[in-house]
# Entry
Amino acid sequence: MRGRGQFVGDIRLPNMWDVAFLRSPYAHGRIQGLDIPEALKRQVFSAEDLKGVKAIRAVSGLPGFKVSEQPILAQDKVRHVGELVAMCVASSRAEAEDLVAQVGFRVEELRPVVDMEFGRTAQAPLLHEHWPDNVFLETNIHVNSSIFEQAKIRVTREICTSRQAQAPIEGRGVVAYWDNRLEQLTIYSSAQMPHIVRTGLSECLGLPHEQIRVIAPDVGGGFGYKGILLPEEVALGWLAMHLERPVRWLEDRREHLIASANCREHRYVITGYAAEDGQLLGVECEATVDSGAYSSYPFSACLEAAQVASILPGPYDFPGYSCKTHSVATNKCPILPYRGVARTGVCFALEIILDAIAREAGISVVDVRQKALVRPDQMPFDNITKKHFDSGDYPKALNLAVDAIHLAQVRERQKRGEPDGRRVGFGVAVYCEQAAHGTSVYAGWGIPMVPGQEQAVARITPDGGLELRIGAHSHGQSLETTLAQVAHEILGVDVARIRLIHGDTGLTPYSTGTWGSRCMVMSGGAVASACEALITRLTHIGAWMLKEDLQNVSFSDGQVHGQTGSLAVEEIARTWYLRPQDLPADVHGGGLEVTEGYKPERDSGTFGYGVHAVVVAVCPQTGQVDILDYVIVEDGGKLINPMVVDGQIFGGTAQGIGTALYEEMAFDGSGQPLGSTFSDYLLPGPTEVPNLRVIHMETLSPYTRFGQKGIGESGAIAPPAAITNAINDALYELGAELLVSPVTPTRILQAIAVGQPRRRA
# Structure
């Protein structure tokens, strides 16, 4: 915020040129040819030039998964608007864009697949012609579905979430150069998983890992968008080696919106089954996800749909379940992970169904949830899809939220009515967030990103400071602060003397990176393990310096204590590094630098959870929605730094409000994206985000180092469900029901127009 950061766009290298890409203006077409003026041949490159460069392949061991090959620059066909076709390089971005304008692009247009349901039909043209259909993957889960027949209440809804863009403040960016001294390709990239990017670059460019160094400097937000390998990264890596000079590409916002940063286009046909008193008996669902044209590396096409079936039950305990999912290829840019991956959609679908069941049963929306929530006495609990809930008190969280929102007063206000004609509504949504899931979860997916032992390096400096090195990346999570707290807690080194080094494959231990709200559990545990290993070495050296037996010394508060005195860490470090002649030959030879790994006692993941309760006012004449009150109850286990937790919750909730009310990446019938600027694609600003009231619970996880759980995505999960339920409650007497996010004024007015007035029970 002070302008002191160093982002990719701040990096300046001697003789650096800029790159602009010719991108396809067509959603689907067969390439007839490129017309490159002779004078530009040395500055314009097409797929024919990238000899030996392999396409991006995201593989999976899931049965039935179809592999797509994403060319670095389009070959034979283009499959979405914005796909890379040619690469132009010049001394400035403006000049490179002028070159793009001079390149002719001839295409035989083909009928595009824009609607995912049409894409599943036999009439749809094939995106990948060696496939028999346009479906990346189908999944099925069926558990005790015969119980559906016992249900007295059955409610079915078709519920949709619109395609979005992640929209971090900083778009993607790449600077690449070949280091002749080290014989190494160095890539600066705005990435949240630098080690994974290096692995992907190695596969595509045919270089061994040691000849590639990926550096992620300061990164202006990620949200999952920066957790993939970009074709632009591969293209610039090749170009830097080919030209033997540094090259740079900085994504502009139009590229960001239309070409790569899309997510969350889901459709659910979902039925809730309940007993006459509203007790939830089961859920049946068929879910379709628009996966776009390719599966991005390491794995994106099925990340949403493949999880839908397993996480749809959420925090509820019920006996019957059936879910089928389809990941459909369409002529849109690839769907990518976004904060709350799949959870935002399933929470939206399930929580709307629960409100519908409550209305059908004539009970409150709070009671229908209390009847179905997993109870604290059931913990740890394996739910109907074998998700292992580690700990928590879901009913208490719901009660806290309802009490804080003053529901009885809201109901009284509803009865009185608003003087200006607006209608007031209450909505609630309960969610859980599986985080920090490890080897046992991802190994079964057969993808090139299976997390194992998360490692950390801890090194005492000669004057008693501490350097920490981790393979994960901090791009807004404040790991520089929280991991320093962990180290201070164990070693006693002043937080001001602790430095975190991350984001550089040349300096840090291997890691699958930052995703799935895993860093505080995994990197936090690894830092703790490394610091504890340092204590062993410090006490060994300190005991000799104190001339005492090892069993007579202890470590606390940054000092080794013996019967004859104490030694501070800096005294021991100074002796080890600068006065080794004062140490015996048999002192611990490992020194004051250690690398240690960490996995939780059980690596199926932690389960943070929470409740969002909201009060809205809706104008029936304009469709305008005003958020009057917003309460969040969250439980992320041990809160290492409550201020950081609040920041994560506030930011995620702001994004969730965007999902609920504003953000939509629409396409026309020819596959053209209609939201190519922020004039067309609406983001919430400060005036759209209300004052959020957060209530913390701390139910410790029994499996992690400090009892902490992942919490980075939780704020973004529940807002669309809670806000939409509140809008439906407000408009109940008008017979309107909203089932599509975002809930725009136009959709509200349309729902009111077709609604049939009814009385509130």
About this structure: The chain has 17 helices and 33 strands. The longest strand covers residues 280-292. The chain has three domains: 1-342, 373-437+604-661+680-761, 453-598.
